[in-house]
Design brief:
Blueprint lengths: L3 E8 L3 E3 L17 E2 L7 E2 L1 H13 E7 H6 L13 E5 L14 E4 L2 H12 L3 E5 L2 H8 L5 E7 L7 E2 L15 E5 L2 E7 L3
Parallel strand pairs: 1-8, 1-9, 5-6, 5-8, 6-7
Antiparallel strand pairs: 2-10, 3-4, 9-12, 11-12
Pfam family, one: RibD_C
InterPro entries: DHFR-like_dom_sf (IPR024072), RibDG_C (IPR002734)
Protein name: Dihydrofolate reductase family protein
């Protein structure tokens, strides 16, 4: 069975975007180096960030996002980001009428059903769950194996929380990955069971 990783870039005060869904300088680390992270060459990071991020990206088989992220990105134009094979969209609404059903996007109602679909599609590859409301729901359901965050030196003060609206306490192990890149600190925690 695949590993489930909740992931996002996050401000030091725990936000993945401001109140208006703007990420501001959160992703500055993706242009803070000289090593191309993907084939476009547009994203350039430090060697330390490349050595951590590229293998992680290569392990992802499916990304799970909420409908809000899908709508904000316009579904990445029908092509999953970062070369990922499939995107599972948690939504109470069906796919948009104008959407090509042949694209590798799957609309599923509810996080448990979305995770079952993602696990099936991923096989033995990683299922990545976008942090925020959907990520928090998946964590609350006990379905997250690891929490991964790229912490950037930004303070928002308010906005969209990394863990969404999680209200209960969840314990994590000590970080098993701590890597400093340019303008980012890569952290990974296993979820304590």
């Amino acid at each position: 069975m695949s590993r489930v990783v909740m992931y996002s870039t996050v401000s030091v005060d725990g936000f993945i975007a401001d109140e208006n869904d703007q990420v501001g300088p959160l992703f500055d680390w993706l242009s803070s180096g000289d090593i191309p992270l993907d084939e476009t060459g547009e994203v350039k990071v430090s060697q330390a960030s490349y050595d951590y991020t590229r293998p992680y990206w290569d392990q992802i088989g499916v990304t799970v996002v909420g409908r809000h992220v899908f709508d904000m990105t316009d579904g990445w134009g029908g092509k999953p980001p970062g070369g990922i094979a499939h995107v599972v969209v948690v939504s109470h609404r069906p796919m948009p009428e104008s959407w090509d059903p042949e694209t590798p996007f799957h609309f599923v109602d509810g996080v448990e059903a979305a995770m079952a679909k993602a696990q099936k599609l991923a096989g033995d590859r990683t299922v990545e769950v976008a942090a925020g409301d959907v990520g928090g729901q998946v964590l609350a359901a006990g379905l997250v194996d690891e929490v991964a965050m790229d912490v950037t030196p930004v303070v928002f003060g308010s906005g969209k929380r990394y863990f969404g609206s999680v209200a209960a306490q969840h314990l994590l192990e000590d970080p098993h990955v701590v890597i400093q890149g340019n303008r980012v600190l890569h952290l990974r925690y296993r979820v304590r069971r």
